[in-house]
Amino acid sequence: MTKTQTATQTQQQQPKPEAPPSRKPIHKVRLGKVKGSVWQNSTDNGVFYKVTFVRFYRDENAWRVADSFGRDDLPALASVANQAWLWIFQKQQEPE
After folding, report:
1. pTM, full prediction
2. pLDDT tens, 21-74?
3. Angle at 77 between CA 72 and CA 89, to 5 degrees
4. Which of 21, 57, 48, 53 is nearest to 37 (CA)?
5. Is the pLDDT of residue 89 over 80?
6. DSSP per residue, 62-95
7. Tally of CB atoms within 10 A around 80
8. ∠ CA(34), CA(40), CA(45), 5° rounding?
9. What's the pLDDT at 96?
């Protein structure tokens, strides 16, 4: 970097690394306003799965997503979690 260049100018000249490809869930379970997404992760120790949950709601004219659940959402959340667990369990029983 020359004395007249700033750190910002130097950063702008460097090529940007390519973004990693966007991952998609391997499986989704939805019941009403609640959705669970199953994610597959491969490691040196083998494959494992994680699940994320969201709740959809309508705000004026747009659909929004939240990661908090009210009392009345909990039965659907429990059912979606159980279905996701069952899917993962069955997937892990498959021969490799």
Report:
1. 0.74
2. 678 999 999 999 999 999 999 999 999 999 999 999 999 999 999 999 999 999
3. 160
4. 53
5. yes
6. EEEEES---GGGHHHHHHHHHHHHHHHHHHHHS-
7. 23
8. 140
9. 73
Both tokens assigned to 77: 């959340």
**C-alpha to C-alpha distance for 52 and 84, rounded to whole angstroms:** 10
> How close are the terminal C-alpha atoms of the chain, in Å?
53
Q: Which of 66, 54, 56, 51 has its CA nearest to residue 33?
A: 56
Looking at residue 67, its amino acid is: D
Question: Going by C-beta distance under 8 Å and a sequence separation of 6 or more, which residues neighbour residue 55?
Answer: 33, 34, 35, 65, 66, 67, 68, 69, 73, 77
Which residue carries 């994680």 as its tokens?
Answer: 50
Q: Where are the domains of the chain?
A: 23-93
Length of the chain, in residues: 96
Give the pLDDT confidence score for residue 23 in this predicted structure: 87
